[in-house]
Amino acid sequence: MGLSNNDVLKKLRYAMNLKDEQMKHIFELGGGNASLNEVAAYLTKEENPSYRECTDKNLEYFLDGLITFRRGEKDTGHKTGRVLMPKE
Known about the structure:
Helices cover 52% and strands 0% of the residues. By secondary structure, the chain is mainly α. It has one domain.
């Protein structure tokens, strides 16, 4: 059996030493909206009555937000395209 979305969140939280407030902020950076209670519910054990399964969409919000959290906002002013070579 592979890792659940909740397991991924837990592993990232501990590996990156993130607090609940930071995780909430990361969800928001990714376009999601998770309350502190929801974050806590994602991180608790399955046996706990407050446990809540993290959906694929919520994990996507978190991972997208994590990129922004670590690298900063995307620079929309920079255009990529063809490189023009000087004429010889």
